Structure formats: structure tokens, C-alpha cells
């Protein structure tokens, strides 16, 4: 209990004292996670909508893989990205391994299936009759897409939040593909792991509070968007 | 006769089953056409095909004498029609927003939209609901919103698929009365699908009876109802047992 309170105190101290290193790490964490979830949303949302509204051969198999992907262990994702970016690997020439870009790639790999699958589930519940009615109202394909996104705003934001939760909590992949290099790829989760292994529980705890605050802030913003004025 | 829409040798097949087989059929300007028949006869399918929402398997549909290629009705053509179904299928949003949507999709100016929504809400007696969420309305209110939403675009043809059949009797007759007056004033051509003889008798002036995907009889509503032919009598006479005709 005392340790917890000490950790909290230390966290506040770190924030107030303007500890440059902590700021840099927090900022990188935020940047990497937001970029990852943004890209996952940009891909996963249209893809999920497509999967939810259409029926084609192989769709169920595809969905099965995406659903399995939701539980993809981050270290596995990290390993795959490492192999992809390894000097002699397919994308080795880009020398992206141990860069923030590599972390973003790994985080997309673990969050994209979540955003896609949850979006698909939401859109699958739109009845054929509703789609027909929207078409009959005079909507073009694009207008239908916009109407549906607005109608399913709550479910879509839930999908994004779930993906974000995965991304911000993730450490195994970031460690493996980022390498926890100070000033370059060190993010909050990897720092926490490092500090714990060094026995610096107070610093680790302090960082964990900062991590929680970041997650809380983003999730609160998304929840606010999600739950905004619902007329009765 | 002045046909808006003509069907020629239309068939609709699904899973190797012929659901519609209609050599000839037309919708005339200004008429209130009823389409009646037992459940599963193909009424809803016909409505979707003639309103270009679903494509026929074979045959031609002509709009003002011009053949519209199968499955390729331009959006401008589709936007001349409205459809209201049994379920009101309203969107999550205010009643105002729901009624306005057809105009919003057609990129009509805000000022015009406001004016027209006010007008149609007034006609359907739902002005007091403007700011309510459309998902929390009673069945009768929701159906009024649905009809106002369909009428606001001033469709050349209004298609209706059993719009009143989910309503309780008193709600139904009140709405039917209001609706009939509104359609007559607006002089909208309407196509009304129902399996209910009372509704058909009250609303329509021409009637087509469809059984097993085929139009078995058509003509002025009173004549068809009074003189069923050999293919339609079993269906119509069942109804007439419970609903003695009086117009
Ligand atoms: N897409 C479809 N696939 C298979 N069967 C269909 C399809 N659409 C309609 N049907 C069948 O066609 C018949 C007519 O349906 P419908 O037009 O809804 O009849 P009604 O509106 O007169 O009750 C029914 O037997 C229905 O099951
Ligand atoms: Mg039907």
C-alpha cells in the first residue's frame, strides 16, 4: 500500500518537475499509439464495413482468421515484424527495425483485427430491409456509407477503443521490434518492464500511473464522443 | 391511359424458383393502384422490382416509354420514387432529421428543408414530435413519420408495402383516413401492396390480384372485388365472408 502511494507521489513529482526523459517517453508512447490506432481505423473500418455488409465465397474463413487475430499474442506479432524487417528479410532494405515505425507496424498488427472484427459485427446487424430503405430514400452508395457510420457511431467508437486498449497495453512486440532504445524507441510500457527488472519499483509504479493517465485521457475523450447527446 | 411504368415479360427468379412471372403490367399516372394477394404471392418482390430497388431476372421495365437497362437505373430515376414499408425503419435521430433525410440526400438547401419538413409534419399531425428521437415513437407515430419521410420528396410514384398492417385497428383507420386525404390533395400516383381487403377497398381505384407470382386479374377495384374470376375467387371470397363490400 505504501509503495503504491509512493509511486503515485513520485509520478506527480516526475510530471511537475518537468523530467525531460519522462516527457519524451510519454510523448513517444502517445504518438506511436495514436498513429497505430489511426491507421488501424482507416483500414479496419472500411474493411469491417465491407465484411459486415457483403457475402462472398471465403468470407467466413477470412473472418475466422481475423477473429483469431484478435487474440494474436503480441510477441508473435513482434516476431513476425522482426523477421519482416530483419536486415536479410523482405523489407530489410528499409532499415526500420528498432525504430518507432517498427513499433507502429507491430501495434497495427495486433489492433487491426480487433477494429475490423468489431466493426464487421456491428454492420452485420443492419437488416437488408434497412439497407433497402436507405437506398430507396435516394442515397448513393457513398451516402449510404455515411448514414450507416453515423447510425453505428457507438459501436464503431467501441471498436476503436478496444483497439486502442490493446495498443497502449502492449509491451512484448514493442520490446522486440523497438529494442527499448532511450530517446528513440523507449515507450512507457517498455520502460516499466526495464525498471522492474532493475528493481526500481517506485519508478516503475510512477510510470504505470502516467501510462494509466494517458490511457484514461484518450478513452475518456472517445467515450465522450461516443455518448454525446442522445435525444430521447 | 398514360403509363408511367410498363413491365414486359418480367421474371424474377431466386434459388431456381420463379417468384414472379409477369408478361404485362403497368402503372398509370394519377392512379391509386392496389396489389393484393395471399402471403408469399410475390407482392413485395414485384414492388421492389418496379421501383428499381431489386433487379429482375429477365424482361424489360420502361419508364415513360423508355427501356431502363436491367439493374442500371440511374440515381436520378430512383430519386423520383419513394417507398414506405410495413416496418417504419427510422434512423437514430430526431423526427425532424428523419423526415428531412430524403431532401438532405438530394442536397436541397436548409431553408427549403425547414419549410418542407414543417409543412409535412403539420399534414401528418406530428409537428409536436419534431425534436423527439424517432426510435422512441409509438407504432402509429413512427408510421406517420415514415409516410411523411416518403412524401416530402414529392415522389412521382409512392410505393407502399403493407404500411398499416402492423398497427392496431383504431390507429390504422385514423391514419388511413388522413393518408387518403393527403394523397388525394397531392395527387400522387401510388402503388399499394396489401393482403387486406378492407384497406384495398378503401384506398385504391385500380386493383391487381397476384397469386403465385402471376397477375391473375386486374381492373377497377370495385369490379375486381365484386366479380373475382376463377383464379382469384378462392382468395377473395375468403375475405368477403368477413368483410361484406360497401363503398
Ligand atoms: N431473395 C429471395 N430468395 C429466395 N426466395 C425469395 C427471395 N425473395 C422472395 N422470395 C420468396 O418469394 C416468395 C414471394 O415473396 P414476397 O414477394 O415477399 O411475397 P409477399 O410480399 O406477397 O408475401 C416467397 O415464397 C419468398 O420466400
Ligand atoms: Mg410482402
Automatic annotation (TrEMBL), chain A:
<keyword id="KW-0812">Transmembrane</keyword>
<comment type="similarity">
    <text>Belongs to the binding-protein-dependent transport system permease family.</text>
</comment>
<feature type="transmembrane region" description="Helical">
    <location>
        <begin position="24"/>
        <end position="49"/>
    </location>
</feature>
<dbReference type="InterPro" id="IPR049783">
    <property type="entry name" value="ABC_perm_TupB-like"/>
</dbReference>
<keyword id="KW-1133">Transmembrane helix</keyword>
<keyword id="KW-0813">Transport</keyword>
<feature type="transmembrane region" description="Helical">
    <location>
        <begin position="98"/>
        <end position="123"/>
    </location>
</feature>
<dbReference type="InterPro" id="IPR035906">
    <property type="entry name" value="MetI-like_sf"/>
</dbReference>
<dbReference type="Pfam" id="PF00528">
    <property type="entry name" value="BPD_transp_1"/>
</dbReference>
<feature type="transmembrane region" description="Helical">
    <location>
        <begin position="61"/>
        <end position="86"/>
    </location>
</feature>
<feature type="transmembrane region" description="Helical">
    <location>
        <begin position="144"/>
        <end position="169"/>
    </location>
</feature>
<feature type="domain" description="ABC transmembrane type-1">
    <location>
        <begin position="26"/>
        <end position="222"/>
    </location>
</feature>
<feature type="transmembrane region" description="Helical">
    <location>
        <begin position="203"/>
        <end position="225"/>
    </location>
</feature>
<keyword id="KW-0472">Membrane</keyword>
<protein>
    <submittedName>
        <fullName>Tungstate uptake system permease protein TupB</fullName>
    </submittedName>
</protein>
<dbReference type="InterPro" id="IPR000515">
    <property type="entry name" value="MetI-like"/>
</dbReference>
UniProtKB/TrEMBL annotation, chain B:
<dbReference type="InterPro" id="IPR003593">
    <property type="entry name" value="AAA+_ATPase"/>
</dbReference>
<dbReference type="InterPro" id="IPR027417">
    <property type="entry name" value="P-loop_NTPase"/>
</dbReference>
<dbReference type="InterPro" id="IPR003439">
    <property type="entry name" value="ABC_transporter-like_ATP-bd"/>
</dbReference>
<keyword id="KW-0067">ATP-binding</keyword>
<keyword id="KW-0547">Nucleotide-binding</keyword>
<protein>
    <submittedName>
        <fullName>Sulfate/thiosulfate import ATP-binding protein CysA</fullName>
    </submittedName>
</protein>
<dbReference type="GO" id="GO:0005524">
    <property type="term" value="F:ATP binding"/>
</dbReference>
<feature type="domain" description="ABC transporter">
    <location>
        <begin position="5"/>
        <end position="237"/>
    </location>
</feature>
<keyword id="KW-0813">Transport</keyword>
<dbReference type="InterPro" id="IPR050093">
    <property type="entry name" value="ABC_SmlMolc_Importer"/>
</dbReference>
<dbReference type="InterPro" id="IPR017871">
    <property type="entry name" value="ABC_transporter-like_CS"/>
</dbReference>
<dbReference type="Pfam" id="PF00005">
    <property type="entry name" value="ABC_tran"/>
</dbReference>
Amino acid at each position: 500500500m505504501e509503495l503504491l502511494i509512493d509511486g503515485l507521489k513520485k509520478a506527480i513529482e516526475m510530471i511537475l518537475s518537468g523530467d525531460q526523459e519522462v516527457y519524451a517517453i510519454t510523448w513517444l508512447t502517445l504518438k506511436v499509439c495514436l498513429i497505430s490506432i489511426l491507421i488501424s481505423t482507416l483500414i479496419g473500418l472500411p474493411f469491417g464495413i465491407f465484411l459486415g455488409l457483403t457475402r462472398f465465397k471465403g468470407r467466413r474463413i477470412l473472418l475466422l482468421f481475423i477473429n483469431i487475430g484478435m487474440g494474436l499474442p503480441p510477441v508473435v506479432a513482434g516476431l513476425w515484424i522482426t523477421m519482416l524487417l530483419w536486415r536479410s528479410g523482405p523489407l530489410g532494405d528499409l532499415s526500420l527495425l528498432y525504430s518507432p515505425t517498427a513499433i507502429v507496424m507491430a501495434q497495427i498488427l495486433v489492433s487491426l483485427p480487433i477494429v475490423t472484427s468489431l466493426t464487421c459485427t456491428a454492420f452485420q446487424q443492419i437488416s437488408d430491409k434497412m439497407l433497402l430503405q436507405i437506398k430507396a430514400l435516394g442515397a448513393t452508395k457513398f451516402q449510404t456509407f455515411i448514414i450507416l457510420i453515423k447510425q453505428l457511431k457507438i459501436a464503431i467508437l467501441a471498436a476503436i477503443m478496444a483497439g486502442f486498449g490493446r495498443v497502449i497495453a502492449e509491451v512484448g512486440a514493442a520490446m522486440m521490434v523497438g529494442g527499448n532504445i532511450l530517446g528513440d524507441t523507449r515507450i512507457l510500457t517498455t520502460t516499466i518492464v526495464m525498471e522492474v527488472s532493475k528493481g526500481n519499483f517506485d519508478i516503475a509504479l510512477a510510470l504505470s500511473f502516467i501510462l494509466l493517465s494517458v490511457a484514461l485521457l484518450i478513452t475518456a475523450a472517445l467515450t465522450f464522443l461516443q455518448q454525446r447527446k442522445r435525444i430521447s | 391511359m398514360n403509363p408511367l411504368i410498363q413491365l414486359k415479360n418480367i421474371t424474377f427468379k431466386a434459388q431456381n424458383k420463379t417468384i414472379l412471372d409477369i408478361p404485362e403490367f403497368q402503372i398509370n399516372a394519377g392512379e391509386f393502384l392496389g396489389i393484393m394477394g395471399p402471403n408469399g404471392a410475390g407482392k413485395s418482390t414485384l414492388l421492389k422490382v418496379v421501383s428499381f430497388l431489386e433487379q429482375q431476372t429477365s424482361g424489360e421495365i420502361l419508364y415513360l416509354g423508355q427501356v431502363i437497362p436491367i439493374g442500371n437505373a440511374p440515381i436520378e430515376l430512383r430519386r423520383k420514387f419513394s417507398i414506405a414499408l410495413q416496418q417504419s425503419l427510422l434512423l437514430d435521430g430526431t423526427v425532424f432529421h428523419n423526415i428531412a433525410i430524403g431532401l438532405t440526400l438530394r442536397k436541397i438547401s436548409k431553408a427549403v428543408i425547414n419549410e418542407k419538413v414543417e409543412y409535412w409534419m403539420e399534414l401528418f399531425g406530428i409537428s409536436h414530435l419534431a425534436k423527439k428521437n424517432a426510435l422512441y415513437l409509438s407504432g402509429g407515430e413512427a408510421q406517420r413519420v415514415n409516410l411523411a419521410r416518403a412524401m416530402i420528396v414529392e415522389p412521382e410514384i409512392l410505393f407502399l408495402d403493407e404500411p398499416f398492417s402492423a398497427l392496431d385497428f383504431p390507429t390504422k383507420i385514423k391514419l388511413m383516413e388522413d393518408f387518403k386525404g393527403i394523397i388525394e390533395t397531392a395527387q400522387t400516383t401510388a402503388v399499394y401492396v396489401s393482403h387486406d381487403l378492407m384497406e384495398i377497398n378503401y384506398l385504391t381505384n385500380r386493383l391487381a390480384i397476384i397469386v403465385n407470382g402471376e397477375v391473375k386479374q386486374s381492373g377497377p377495384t370495385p369490379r375486381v372485388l365484386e366479380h373475382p374470376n376463377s383464379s382469384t375467387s378462392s382468395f377473395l371470397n375468403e375475405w368477403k365472408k368477413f368483410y361484406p363490400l360497401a363503398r
